[in-house]
Structure formats: structure tokens, C-alpha cells
Amino acid sequence: MGNSNKKELLSIASIPLIMTLGNSMLIPVLPAIRSKLGVTSLQVSLLITVYSAVAILLIPIAGYLSDKYGRKFVIIPSLLITGIGGLIAGLAAWWMDHSYVVMLIGRFVQGVGAAGAFPIVIPLVGDLFKKDSDVSSGLGLVETANTFGKVLSPILGSALSMVVWFLPFMFIPVLCVISMLLVLFMVKPPTKSSKPTKSISFSDYLAQIKTIFKNNGRWLYAIFAIGCVCMLVIFGVLTYLSDLLEEKAHVYGIVKGCLLAIPLAALCIASYVTGKVIGKNQLLMKWLIVAGLLLLAGSLLVCGLVGSTFLLLVFISLAGIGIGAALPCLDVMITEGIPKEERGTITSIYSSMRFIGVAIGPPLASILVKNSPSLMFYMIAGISILAGAIALFAIKPKKDEQAPLKRALA
After folding, report:
1. DSSP string of 288-312?
2. In this entry, which stretches build a coiled coil (predicted)?
3. CA gap 11, 2 in Å, rounded
4. How far is CA 138 from CA 125, 340, 373, in A?
5. Backbone torsions φ then ψ of 40, nearest 5 degrees
């Protein structure tokens, strides 16, 4: 990987970092927002959900446009729209007494922009590198940047909210401008291989996608489902943990942010290491996914049994390691398994499924916790076990991809 490629990759990695900050920064602030706006836990969780819900609908369209016109053509305007959405939400909170509805609208606009930002990063990395090892390493860095954003989010969100509770919203436009400038000036336009060789109609394009699903549906559906489960767990558990630290442990501000960052740091480190070691070995990827999901499920089951906040943090951190082992493998499998001409759309559908998990996680946690926190942990542990079973039986690596691991074990 050359120096120019490294600069491009670092610039691209700013997108998932900033997109994650724009959403996850709100998690430690949700209790304060609920208090300031006088809304319920379910209503405040919709500030996360509406962002994700609109992105779910628009991500496949953004993927199609990126395949047809190029990745930067979609990414740069999307970053601008994301910043505008954050500005709307922040100004509404600042200037209006009853700002909840306008803040939801701002988050809706932000979700429109998010649809064309991070989801396009995955195929863009696949376009930039020819070597499989460079692709897997690049995607590992992207997933690490995404996770590092989650690590930094609770700390930064808590710090900003100590100045004024709506400042995290106002910080989003600043971050988006930085990322937009980096991509604009540091990332070269994708090569011709990143776009179709000829223009085709949307109906013909859909027919191509249908053919891809017909030939690869089994493992694609499995990866979509697993990505959704991983995001559901992250955002659901962190939403619960944020409330728990304030209401029961009486931990606030930056200290709370640092505690929330611990399991995310474990996830981040696991993602980085996994991206470095997997290469193009699909058999290794499969077993890392299965093992990661089993570690996730086991940790969540224990979380349902313990009452100590310290032990809860320990086992949620173990759950984070499980997710961190799985995510880079999912990214590489779906990027390398699809032709470049259709890669943007397929990876965007995958990103949509991850956003579904983000959208479902916080409200699901809020509903289940009303009955019992243990019920919440047992429920999502069961979902994680199901995801592990799907990975075990639906993901079948090609035989020629198994040879490297067999040689390594010989």
C-alpha cells in the first residue's frame, strides 16, 4: 500500500468516524435531552431511530447512484446534507421552547445525508486497492474508525453537553465540513473500474441485482442478518447502560462517557486486529464470525444474571470483542464477493440492514427494560445465538479459500 493510498484511506476513514460521532454522541446525552424536552424514554430514543430509519430507505438508492456516477459524486453532497441536518436540530434546541418535533426533522435530514456517506465507503475501499490483503486491511481500518468513533462518542458527547446540552448537535456540521474537505482534496476520483462500463437503465440494474441475489442469496442474507444483529446489540445495550450509570450508579458527565467507552474500546481493538489477520481467508472469516457471535451471546446471558455495574461493564466489553471480531469479516466477505459494477448497491443494502439494527436497538431496549433488564439481555442473547447459527450453516466459503488455513494448521 503506497503513501498516496494511505492518505486516501485515512481521509476516507474520517467518514465513518464522523458519521458515528454524529449519531453515537447523542447516547450519553439522551437522559439530559429527555429531561430538557420533557419527553419519554421512547420518544427520546426516536432521535436515534428516525436518523437510521430514513437512511435505511435511501441507502440502496445512494448505492445505485455511486455505481452509476462515482463514489465521490454521492459522498460529498451527502456530508453537506448531514451537516445541515445537525444544524437544524441544534438551532431548534437553542432557539425554540418546544423543539422536539423540529429536532426530529433535523435528524431526518441528517439521516438523508448519512445514507450516502458511510455506506459508500465500503465499496470505495474495494475500488481503491487491487490486492485482497490491502482490501481487508483497508476495510479493517474503516471498521476501526467506525468503532473508534463509538469509543470517542460518549466521552466527547458528555464533554460537549456539560457546556450546553444541545452542543453535540451543533458540533456535527463542523465535523462534516472537515471530512468533506479531506475527501474532496485527498481522495482521487475512482477509476473506471469502479463504475459500469456503460450506462444502463434502473430496471436493467435491478435485474442484475436480482441475478446476484439468485446466485448468492444464501450467504448474502446471512451477512445482512448478522450485521443487523451486531448493530442492534451495540445501540440497545449502550442506551440501557447510559441510563443505568446515571439512575442507579449516579455517574454523570465525562466519567460516564469514559465508562461507556470501555466496551467500545474493546470492540475497536478487536476490529483492528481482525482486519490485520484475516487477509482473504474466507474459512477463517467464517469461524471468527461464529466464535464472535457465540462470545457475544454468552456474555449477554451472563449480563442478565449479574447485578454489579462493574461486572456488567466487564461482560459487555467481552460482547464488544465478539462484535469486533465479526464486523471486519462481514465487510470483506461482502466487498470481495460482489463484482465492482454492482458492489455499491449490494454493500449499501448491507449498510441498510446495519442501520435497521441501529434503529431497532434503542426503542427495543427501552421497551424490554420496563419489564426487566434481565429480559432484555436474554432476548438479545437469543437473537445473537440465532445469528451464530445462521453464520454456521449459511456461510459456506469456497474450497480454494480454505487452503491457506489448512496449510497453516498442517
Report:
1. HHHHHHHHHHHHHHHHTT---HHHH
2. none
3. 14
4. 7, 16, 38
5. -85, 170
**What DSSP character marks residue 26?**
T
Distance between CA 27 and CA 330 in Å, rounded?
A: 25
Of 28, 38, 26, 46, the C-alpha closest to 244 is: 28
Rounded to whole angstroms, the Cα distance separating 117 from 79 reads 6
The pLDDT value given to residue 401: 44
Give dist(CA 336, CA 47) in Å, integer.
Answer: 34
Q: Are the beta carbons of 39 and 81 closer than 8 angstroms?
A: no
Number of neighbours of residue 87 by Cβ within 10 angstroms:
19
C-alpha cell at 364: 427495543
300: Cα within 13 Å, side-chain hemisphere: 32
Task: Answer yes or no: are the C-beta atoms of 342 and 209 closer than 8 Å.
Answer: yes
Alpha-carbon gap, residue 410 to 404, rounded angstroms? 10
Return phi, psi of residue 188, to 5°: -70, 150
10 Å CB burial of residue 160 (0-12, 13-18, 19+) is buried
Q: pLDDT tens digit string along 250-263?
A: 888 888 888 988 99
47-106 pLDDT per residue, tens: 888 888 888 888 878 888 887 888 888 999 999 999 999 999 999 999 988 889 999 999
Q: DSSP for 30-57?
A: HHHHHHHHT--HHHHHHHHHHHHHHHHH
Q: Is residue 170 within 8 Å of residue 90, measured between CB atoms?
A: yes
Q: What per-residue confidence (pLDDT) applies to 62?
A: 85
Domains, the chain, ranges and CATH?
13-182+205-402 (1.20.1250.20)
- Structural contact between residues 121 and 138, judged by C-beta atoms closer than 8 angstroms: no
The list of the chain residues with pLDDT below 70 reads: 1-4, 130-133, 189-202, 205, 340-342, 398-410
Burial class (CB in 10 A: 0-12, 13-18, 19+), 4: exposed
pLDDT value, residue 228: 93
What integer pLDDT is reported at residue 193 of this predicted model? 40
Kindly list the distances between the CA atom of residue 234 and the CA atoms of 120, 126, 200, 239, 319, in Å, as whole numbers in the listed order.
Answer: 22, 26, 39, 9, 9
Name the grid cell of 35: 429531561
The predicted model scores a pTM of 0.75
260 in Cβ contact with 241 (< 8 Å) = yes
